[in-house]
Amino acid sequence: MTDKKIEQTIDDGATTMRELTKELKVGSQCGKCCGCTKKILNRKLIEIADITDQVA
């Protein structure tokens, strides 16, 4: 799994770890990638919120 794939899935509408797990099978094996994935998700959601605030 790459950061870019995770970011693309978030850009395509995923907003929760559950959705990322469903789409990408993140954490379905050993779970080591969950911490990193959560950081990417949080960063992207903050970016989306900032962009939304600037547009509104």
From TrEMBL:
Domain BFD-like [2Fe-2S]-binding, first and last residues per copy: 2-42
Cofactor(s) required, per the database record: [2Fe-2S] cluster
Domain of life (superkingdom): Bacteria
Keywords: 2Fe-2S, Electron transport, Iron, Iron-sulfur, Metal-binding, Transport
Keyword Electron transport: yes
First and last residue of the signal peptide: none
Family designation: Belongs to the Bfd family.
Entry protein name: Bacterioferritin-associated ferredoxin
